[in-house]
Amino acid sequence: MTTLAIGFILIAVLVILVLMGMQIAWALLGAGFLGIWLIRDNLDLAFRMLELTAYSGIADYLFATIPLFVLMGLLVSVSNVGRDTFEVAEELLRRVLCGLGVATVAANTVFAAVTGVSIASAAVFTRVAVPEMTRHGYRPAFAAGTVAGSSVLGMLIPPSLLLIVYGVLAEVSIGGMFIAGVIPGIMLALGFVAMLMGLTLVAPGFVFTDPAAARERRTLRDIEPMPLRVMLSKLLPIVVLVFLVLGGLYSGFFTPTEAGGVGAFGALLVALARRSLDRKRLWHVMKQTGAISVSILLLLLAASFYSRMLSVAGLPNAIADLVRSGGFSPVGFMFLYAVIILLMGMILDSTSILLIMVPIAAPIAQSLGIDLIHFGIITVLAVEIGLLTPPFGISVFTVQNTLNDPDVSVEQVFAATLPFVLVMLAVLVIVALVPSTATALL
């Protein structure tokens, strides 16, 4: 059996193991170890490569970025910054068409700029936005779908953990990935806002339980406005954090790791200032940070080892030759790759897709002359869509479980997120066809 055949068989074995329920890290390590052992017929070499991969991975300075941004996001979550951001957005947008839906998207956009985790956004805004939207006459399923759909902004707007994971796997600048995510992230947020307003005009019954009553409620003038001083005090913490992290990154003053450290320290000060961090909560945050960071680092080490096995098998070069001989242009390859990611998103979580696909696809994209940062934004966009598509749809399940409303089924939430999926597909096509949308700020 040729080394290429062994490589292809091991990829199939990897996917089967993951679908059977094996943790992705152990499946990657097992496939990588077995592949090197069989291809080189040397057990000692497999152990030695595993040791070198683990050491070089942990020694990498960039790995410190992950726990720092995870800590920042968790501290922001316990400080109720998400709730305050939504309240300000609600105040400013309450008379806009689908005002609370637009406020949810706006608050998620700002919240994403300091957390970078879609699941955190989904959990926070399910508790904050859904009850408020329901009270104002929005359909509960639509409110839940709006939270789930807009929560994916956390995976694209920097700092995003998926952008960090992709940067490590593809060996590209994490700071560059953060900058490249800004314009597509804004496009996605604006697309969501336009879609919500359009739905309210065209199909108000999809949005409201009683469209006529909702129209009357929107035009009421007797609601006491929030004082400007209160509004500024609620927005100040998140504005300062965004300025510290993104301003420092885009100006070149901070490296991504330094930005994570400064952001985590700033989030700690915000939590202390708001008296939302007692000893018990601090211990819980630190424990969560450690658990999440270690699991991500283990995944990245396993993916790096798996990537080395693919290189030993010569798989990326062989697939690149097949792509060229098949007559695929760079754009054609990107769309084929996006379709594969979308299909995988129906059965696997986002991190698993990146860990399996990026080591194979990134070298092929590079050999076809595709900018790897542009390719990374396309990858993350396609993976994001998988957060909303059945049967896996982890953002949908997070919202539905957090909501815990027997009258709102998972199927109803999936149906409510469909317009968001269509907007994301449109943005994916635009970004693929117009690379400057991702690279203009670099």
From TrEMBL:
Compartment annotation: Cell inner membrane
Keywords of the record: Cell inner membrane, Cell membrane, Membrane, Transmembrane, Transmembrane helix, Transport
Superkingdom, taxonomy of origin: Bacteria
Keyword Glycoprotein carried by entry: no
GO CC annotation: plasma membrane
Membrane topology according to the record: Multi-pass membrane protein
Domain TRAP C4-dicarboxylate transport system permease DctM subunit: 12-436
Main location: membrane
Membrane-crossing segments per the record: 6-39, 60-82, 102-130, 142-166, 178-209, 230-253, 259-277, 289-307, 334-360, 372-393, 413-434
Gene Ontology MF annotations: transmembrane transporter activity
Subunit comment: The complex comprises the extracytoplasmic solute receptor protein and the two transmembrane proteins.
Biological function: Part of the tripartite ATP-independent periplasmic (TRAP) transport system.
Record family assignment: Belongs to the TRAP transporter large permease family.
PANTHER family (UniProt xref): C4-DICARBOXYLATE TRAP TRANSPORTER LARGE PERMEASE PROTEIN DCTM, SIALIC ACID TRAP TRANSPORTER PERMEASE PROTEIN SIAT-RELATED
Protein name: TRAP transporter large permease protein
Annotated source species: Halovulum dunhuangense
